[in-house]
Design goal:
The protein is built from three helices and seven strands. A hairpin with a 2-residue loop joins strand 3 (46-57) and strand 4. The two termini are 20 Å apart. Helices cover 25% and strands 41% of the residues. It has one domain (2-137): Aminopeptidase, CATH 3.40.630.30. It has a seven-stranded mixed β-sheet with strand order 1-2-3-4-5-7-6, sandwiched between helices. It is globular. It has helices at 24-31, 77-93, 107-115, and strands at 2-5, 36-43, 46-57, 60-68, 97-103, 119-126, 129-137. By secondary structure, it is α+β, with helices and mostly antiparallel strands.
């Protein structure tokens, strides 16, 4: 896997997955922030995914967006890409902790993060917000 810095999400997801991520316009806007890292994810020179993270303190990152292109889903590449991303961040950005959230009901995200070693830390129920916080210590 290769991680190439990016300024926007170039992969496409399934229509029924769009409710789980921010819009491409919002991702593009946030990818330009100084505290944000965004990467195109390549496997064998094919663009398969996208990851965007925000560093909230030295070595501590929030995985803001993570997506695998619809053509490459359900092939084990999401887990492989996430594990490789964690290794990449550890080696290049002194990763100590990575956190993320997923919207309740997004069982694909839940299983992906659990299989990568994340543990649930909190559930946020506030009005229309229903999310689960997860964390991985390196």
């Amino acid at each position: 896997m290769k991680f190439i810095q990016s300024t926007e999400m170039k992969v496409d997801i399934l229509e029924n997955q769009e409710c789980w991520l921010s819009s491409k316009d919002k991702i593009k806007q946030n990818a330009k922030r100084d505290d944000t890292l965004a990467f195109d994810i390549y496997n064998d020179d094919k663009l398969i995914g996208f990851a965007m993270l925000r560093e909230f303190e030295k070595g501590c990152f929030f995985l803001w967006s993570f997506a695998i292109d619809k053509e490459f889903q359900n092939k084990g590449l999401g887990k492989k890409a996430l594990l490789e991303l964690i290794k990449f961040l550890k080696n290049n950005y002194d990763l100590k902790t990575i956190t993320t959230t997923y919207k309740t009901g997004n069982n694909h995200a839940k299983h992906l993060y659990e299989n990568a070693g994340f543990t649930e830390t909190n559930r946020v129920l506030d009005g229309e917000i229903d999310e689960v916080d997860m964390e991985l210590h390196i």
